[in-house]
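Problem 3 from the worked examples.
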Amino acid sequence: MNLSNEQQRFEKVYGTDPAIVSAQKERYTKLIDAYSARFGTPSDKLRLFSSPGRTEIGGNHTDHNLGKVLAASINLDCIGAVEATEDNTVHIYDITYNEDYSVAVDQSERIPGETGSIALVRGMIQGFKEKGYAAGGFKACFTSDVISSAGVSSSASFEMMICTIMNFIYNEGKLPVSVLAAIGQFAENKYWDKASGLLDQTACATGGMATIDFADPVNPATRKISFDFAASGYSMMIVNTGKGHADLSAEYSSIPAEMKSVAKFFGQETLRGLTFEQVAEKAVQVRAACGDRALMRAFHFFEENDRVDAEVAALESGDFAGFLRALTDSGNSSWKWLQNICVPTASDEQPIAVCLAATEHFIRKHSVPGAKPCGCRVHGGGFAGVIQAFIPDELVAEYTEMMERLLGYDKACGKRSPVYKMGIRGAGSVEV
């Protein structure tokens, strides 16, 4: 059967499962209806876009110091119905976040005190202009099922949506992922005061599972990794702990700042290029100049880079048990060395620690001779948000029930479960 180009693009994003395809088509139909209600009946030039969230599999807090990561785009996305305009203004109606605002393209300088998505949009417009690329107006209606403030990069998904729209409408779709990611990072760093690296944006825009080496931050080395978790008999689970991280910017920013303070001690801007041994040799002086936590976070950086290599090697050789060992070591390092599991000033609120403890108990409970191994780790920024676990398919229902009970989820409430069985999608931020 010959499929239309539109159908082929749609199935590249969402797969061929009839139920999923049908549900997504209904979702887009509702989006177009919302667009019509807000902006009027669209013309035949209406365009549809999709930008996924991302999962970080290895490389916790390494990208901002030019380290290595293993990441993948996931089957949760922000979708948009878009038409170009001639008024040189970006008009956005966001159903999910109940936002309705406009940004003039010729007014892209930062406005003191401006926050939220409107500040990000203004920053991305400025990013396109500063890099010498075209930016113009459009009308867009968005909706998203990427979990907000929970570590799967709802913000980067949104950023790559805006950048992809600008790329395809005004730059003929010619800009590479590295440019789009850099523009998203620029907006976060300069217009949102969030000291993020390039991991989130690069993973959202790239699609599939990939290892990314940020040694050259202008052109990160990205290599796709072909591995089918579903075929291995495992499910990648994401558990939303119920606590968002929107108010934790200071905690997140302290991690790159402390790592870079160690790098500065050695006359560098970032830790990349230094080694564990070099830093350990000067540990007494580093502790005095930067503090013990900064030293521990630097140690984490070096070890975590090596673990990304170990994870990739294990996956490519089919050693899934070895992959899980490296993944679990990553989680332990984040807890003990990086220290992004608990907020130091909030000892009575430790959602990540609680969920990791319960998951580790579950893993030990099922670690009998001959059983499939499991693995878990903090996911994303930490302190709040989500955890990640790789669970054998036959244990998914039991694990889900345990975590839902732990988090007080009531199936009768009509809301989505906090426990997600994630899929990795092959397409990054695209025009559908």
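Problem 4, a separate protein:
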Amino acid sequence: MRKVLFISQNNYRQNEIDSAVKRAFEHFEMKFKPGEKILLKVNLVAGHDIERRVTTDPSIVRAAAKIILEQGAKPFIADSPGIDNFKNAAEKAGFLSVAQELGIECHELTEPVDLPVEKDADFKKIQVSRFVLEADKIINLAKLKTHGQMYLTMGVKNLFGCIPGRLKAGWHYNVGLNREKFASLLLDIYNGVKPSFTILDGVIGMHGDGPTSGEPYGFGLIGACVDALTMDFWLCKMLGAKFEDYPLYLAAKKRNYPQCILNPNDIEGDFNSEKIFEGVKLPKTRTMRLLPPLPFIERLMTSRPVHIPKLCIGCGRCQAVCAAGALKHENRKLHFDYSKCIRCYCCHEMCPVKAIEFKPSRLVSLVNRFTQKNSVS
């Protein structure tokens, strides 16, 4: 089912969120059997205060869990942060308090097992948490954000968190600089996990240097769908982003997925899907697509992570998360080996104080200057 419901919602008042989420469940006739185990897959990339808008808002998690409990099923909240202690991260994000209030479980996605993948999958050996496969249904509670490596993170990208802990860093290293290849991995995970339903928290999301160091942006919507790919592509258009810069779209197009052709009849709800959000800052980690995506070319064309010493608190998380072993942290100074760096930006993503930013490559900067000079003359 390619239908997407966009609901106008400008705040996180619990009664209004309850109403919007209930509307979404009823619109798609989502039903649960007594005793069914329902995994609520939140976005818990790292432990940040709710006001940073890095994670799924707890009001949406609470609303979804209450609907499932009312039908006699057994929801549990789960995810796998990139590097943070799960309990601490879940407490900061407000998920532990929701679980305690409703008397449900909230735990980390651990214990990797093989994910059954489709015959035409590019990646045949993917491991996800056993809790994912043991759940009777998966409700995907994603967050609308920009993303340094993958341009945007929404419904499909959220399921990368089904891969336990440090195994995610291994995938970053194995896939390397090829973003379309990484997007193909995301498609294989999405097709293997098969979430029953996706709700997207776009009330206040993030733009700029997402998924953790950007700025909050009030998109004013809640998205709901069975087919998250269709929703993600519609939102790409609404954000004013270019499909040719969106690796997930390029990977899906290469597979001839029908979702790549947007059909206005698929959109329902009271939010205007023709709206283009104004002033959205998109990641500038890759600004040119003039040459083939070979590794040495990607390094020339892709922005580098750089250190801001005055903001650094010396926590060492950047070095700990770097799967490529491309940086060394000493006395609050980072030393990058850009010949090893795979531009996954995990160091940027896991920095709690925004002490790592992006710097355009020299080649891109030169071409941009030349282009601007010619346009002026």
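Solution to problem 4. The chain has a mean pLDDT of 91. The CA atoms of residues 101 and 322 lie 37 Å apart.
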